[in-house]
């Protein structure tokens, strides 16, 4: 797919991966509606994405809200034209461990999964009629493997991968392209949230991500995403080693689980002795 001249929506675009993808899309000739909860950060990001302001529009709001999704699509259509690409990038880590409340789970499900479902519900029927459209879901390597310390993040990202797979299988022959982004560590606020030395699960989560592989910049991830769009490739892996990890998991699930427990125990010991 050639992004030049296309219209895109990017959620979670006030920083990190979302901002970098929006900037790369504009650089490639696309026009972008950027959205995020943080209005002030979003406006700052928009200035960096396109200093001219001609190729980017912004709308602050909840990526999981159907009302906000409708408003964002309406803005894109009025400002630039029909939406060709939707990047469901907004995501949260969620409270770690089994102490997470139902409210914690509901919030993460809303942002990490249902936001994708609602955006697809809004756009895919139109794309099927047109015979063209591209849905990009930001999941995580945790959605293929797991996330030590965080059942919420691991589960919701697995769900995001599963929904992307389903979209691809169901609508791929109708002109709807679907890609799923599954990075490991990326240098964003989500990687390094405020942690408490009294919360072992929080520290375990951060240590697991930072030691699993090289921490990439958002720009490096965006470069891989645009290459995947050009090739219409489903699984986007900025850390190529994730594919080997995924294959090892599928080849011998019990062995992989034992290995993950050993890795977890090693990290816990290192954190205890730090």
Automatic annotation (TrEMBL):
Keyword Oxidoreductase found: yes
InterPro entries found in the cross-reference section: NAD(P)-bd_dom_sf, SDR_fam
Keywords: Oxidoreductase
Keyword Oxidoreductase carried by entry: yes
Pfam families: adh_short (PF00106)
Family designation: Belongs to the short-chain dehydrogenases/reductases (SDR) family.
Name under which the protein is recorded: Dehydrogenase
């Amino acid at each position: 797919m050639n992004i030049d001249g296309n219209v895109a929506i990017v959620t979670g675009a006030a920083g990190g991966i979302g901002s970098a993808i929006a900037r790369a899309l504009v650089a490639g000739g696309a026009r972008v509606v950027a959205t995020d909860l943080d209005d002030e950060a979003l406006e700052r990001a928009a200035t960096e994405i396109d200093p001219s302001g001609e190729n980017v529009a912004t709308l602050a709001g909840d990526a999981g809200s159907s009302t906000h999704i409708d408003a964002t699509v309406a803005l894109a259509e009025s400002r630039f034209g029909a939406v060709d690409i939707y990047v469901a990038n907004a995501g949260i880590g969620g409270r770690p461990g089994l102490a997470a409340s139902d409210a914690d789970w509901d919030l993460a499900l809303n942002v990490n999964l249902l936001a994708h479902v609602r955006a697809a519900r809004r756009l895919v029927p139109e794309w099927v009629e047109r015979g063209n459209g591209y849905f990009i879901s930001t999941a995580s390597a945790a959605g293929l493997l797991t996330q030590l310390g965080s059942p919420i993040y691991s589960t919701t990202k697995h769900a995001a991968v599963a929904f992307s797979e389903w979209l691809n299988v169901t609508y791929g022959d109708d002109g709807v392209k679907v890609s799923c982004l599954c990075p490991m560590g990326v240098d964003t606020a989500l990687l390094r949230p405020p942690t408490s030395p009294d919360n072992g699960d929080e520290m375990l989560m951060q240590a697991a991500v930072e030691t699993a592989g090289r921490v990439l910049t958002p720009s490096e991830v965006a470069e891989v995403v645009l290459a995947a769009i050009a090739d219409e490739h489903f699984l986007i892996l900025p850390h190529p080693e994730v594919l080997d990890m995924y294959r090892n998991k599928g080849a011998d699930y019990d062995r992989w689980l034992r290995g993950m427990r050993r890795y977890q125990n090693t990290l816990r010991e290192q954190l205890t002795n730090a």
